[in-house]
Amino acid sequence: MSKFWSSTVRKTKPYVPGEQPNEADVIKLNTNENPYPPSPKAVEAMRSVIGDDLRKYPNPTVDSLRKVIADREEVKPENVFVGNGSDEVLAFAFQAFFETNEAIRFPEITYSFYPVYAKLYDIPYQTVPLKNDFTIDVDGMCNSIGGVIFPNPNAPTGVALKLNEIEKIIQCNSNQVVIVDEAYVTFGAESAVPLIKKYPNVLITRTLSKSHALAGIRLGYAIGSTSLIEGLERIKNSFNSYTINRVTLAGAEAALQDDEYYDEMISRVTDTREWTTHQLEDLGFDVLPSQANFLFVSPSKVTAQELYESLKREKIYVRYFENLEDYIRISIGTENEMKDFVEKVRHIIESIKI
After folding, report:
1. Under DSSP, is residue 32 helix (H, G, I), strand (E, B) or coil?
2. To which H or E segment does residue 127 belong?
3. How far are the Cα atoms of 84, 176, 259, 304 from residue 229, in angstroms, in the given order?
4. Residue 230 scores a pLDDT above 80
5. Is 282 exposed, middle or buried (0-12, 13-18, 19+ CB in 10 A)?
6. 226-239: string of b/e by CB count within 10 Å (b at 16+)?
């Protein structure tokens, strides 16, 4: 601990991302990246803007990309905010809509960046335990003093709420902002975007990291009422007016207009997810019903930590959370990667039985 650190830095416990192995011959199933490459049209669009214009600042209002998103989501451009990855969008939202003297509420088991942001910005919070089936407790999320945030599908469980359940959370927190983090929604859950036309207090956040295989360019966005979007813009423009670079803007715009490519990709991921679910269940695993691009599972005949460590020795990386010791999270890879994964899991279990 440095004597030069501020009190904020001293009390901060940063978010810990999944391991990023340096070896080339690993199967990486620990950070929920898309196993397939981005759209060739998106790659070509990014290549096309690498030139002399990089000496100029990008468009701070990102009007063209906001229109593409708005047309896609059937809203107006003024209902769209764009940020440098959805994590930045969430950080701005915490600053724009939550107060330092009013406790916000989010699930007890959820995206671990939420408590990090809350502590960083001195926002008190309450956690709501999940139900026995790992679904979010809708009633427990009601009547928050300071606001509500939750992912749908939830992370790391992959379990999703239905649209009417999300609407109930919005209705019972009508005087607070409700943030629905839809990082994984395109893999099978219902989007809450239609609800922004009915409720001025709901903000939807999205990312291109998962559904569009563009984690490397860091592009996220939010959809909400014009009042909420203006609040985000005020925070962004007090921090950095030029958050999105020219290359990212070009790639994101092209990707969001290539539905044919991404519909096929998402179908492959979800088909592989279902195949993997059945294989693990046949091995005696408890597999939660996922509508994301990952599975949350409790192994049989071996502890989650033992399986995580055994797989790592085989150069297969999954995510183990020390505070969730009975479960591991497995990102869905390619068909061949998941076949290799299941084969290694079966071998590990059989060797322990002997």
Report:
1. coil
2. strand 125-128
3. 15, 15, 26, 42
4. yes
5. exposed
6. eebbebbbebbeee
What are the backbone dihedrals phi and psi of residue 297, each rounded to the nearest 5 degrees, phi first?
A: -135, 150
Establish how many alpha carbons lie within 13 A of residue 342's alpha carbon, considering only the half-sphere containing its beta carbon. 23
Measured from the Cβ of residue 5, the count of other Cβ atoms closer than 10 Å reads: 11
Closest CA to 207 of 255, 258, 156: 255
- The secondary structure of 54-119 as a DSSP string is GGSPPPTT-HHHHHHHHHHHTS-GGGEEEESSHHHHHHHHHHHH--TTS-EEEESSS-THHHHHHH
CA 19 to chain centre: 17
Residues 6 or more apart whose CB falls under 8 angstroms from that of 59 comprise 249
Torsion over CA: 225, 231, 234, 237 (sign): negative
Cα separation, 182 vs 161, in Å, equals: 11
Statement: the pTM of the whole predicted model exceeds 0.85? yes
Say how many C-beta atoms besides its own lie within 10 A of residue 35's C-beta: 21
Predicted pLDDT of residue 20: 80
Q: Rounded CA gap, 31 and 294, in Å?
A: 9
- Can you name the residues that pair with 149 across neighbouring β-strands? 179
Residue 353's pLDDT is: 56
Displacement of CA 342 from its chain's centroid (Å) = 25
Which residue is associated with the tokens 């600042």? 57
Read off the tokens for 309.
């460590």
How many whole angstroms separate alpha carbon 199 and alpha carbon 185?
A: 20
Residues 272, 189: Cα–Cα separation, whole Å: 17
- Report pLDDT digits (tens) over 22-38: 777 899 999 999 999 99
pLDDT digits (tens, 9 = 90+) for 154-204: 999 999 999 999 999 999 999 999 999 999 999 999 999 999 999 999 999
